[in-house]
Amino acid sequence: MVTAATILHADLDAFYASVEQLLDPSLRGKPIAVGGGVVLAASYEAKAFGVRGGMSGRQARELCPQLMFVGGHFKDYQRLGDAAIGVLGDFTPLVERISIDEAFADVAGCTHLFGSPADIAAAIRRRVRSELGLPISVGVARTKHLAKIASQVAKPDGLVVVDPDTELKFLHGLPVELMWGVGPVTKARLAAMGVSTIGQLAKSPETSLTQSLGPAAGEKLAALAWNRDPRELRPHRRAHSAGAQSALGKRPAIERVIRPTLLHLADRIATRLRRKSRPGRTVTVRVRFADMRAVTRSITLDAPVDATLILAQRAEKLVHAILADHPGETVISLLAISVSHLEEHWDLELDLPLGLADEALRPGSRLGSARWAADCAVDKIRDRFGWDAIGYGSAVLGVSRSVPDAFRELAEKEL
Length: 415
Fold this sequence. Notes:
By secondary structure, the chain is α+β, with helices and mostly antiparallel strands. The protein is built from 17 helices and twelve strands. The mean pLDDT is 88.
């Protein structure tokens, strides 16, 4: 049964760059990038030259010699992002925020108050522009996936409503990279199959897709290509894991690169877990090699962990296990840690001193509990004097942070 198009996807346009142009009107209409050594975000004027997020500052300047780099105003990003998402909440309580600058909203239950979904989307755009001074694009469709695609088609600063009767006609002519979950690697694999549009993907045999992309990804993309997306909105969604990653460029897979990077990542993750009293039992690491191939390895622990040093050492053991399985790989380009199977409001349980081989890595051991207590002291100092007031020496001195932690924190979901 065909239902009405009542799901909105609202996405602030070039959000970080737009905020900088809002705060400094002299930057409006000019190609700007937030960042320095790495482009964190680019304005549409800069994107016209090929400048994009994640690009090195040197490469960006080669593409756009007149590019202006500006420092990030992270508190303003959070303030304005919250305010924009708050506008959606004035129309419906069914809002699912998926990042600092985008959210879904289901307006099926409030059309009698505010008009059609298209009217509501237009009102949201007017309010965000008039109250906050920011451009926002909105897509309206019957499913979450199609609403998100519609908002991308609407950019910059537009509105696209997909009629349920014409949704496949709209969808199948679009490039496949607009689909949720199609990144550069998947796009390249689909291109090797002769697939460049969503329509071509829809007509591809599912067996070919699963062989090329894997069973889960192949089945999922095949369904989305026909707009089969049964997911409902999940307001107030909490993250089921906490993770962090560090792009390294191309660095040797040696201790003085691996250890401080993992300690820095573990510090960021464990601090979040302690803040919410949600330690996790499964630790996963990802290592990306020079050729962009990535390998993951995980371990599920007897007791949940949220102590920085214990998490870092668990992660280091997993990374060394990966490198041992790939002796020919001597260069790495990315390290990542994530912690999942999070506990709710867990209290530290002490272990008996049994002389186990991994006692130093057990949260409830004498040393483990001392490490946790030290972390809690660090948390209190940071809460009062700021993150940079104290830290682990090797993590502070041994890691080059081309992307500020404050920028990364904007993308972290609520635990």
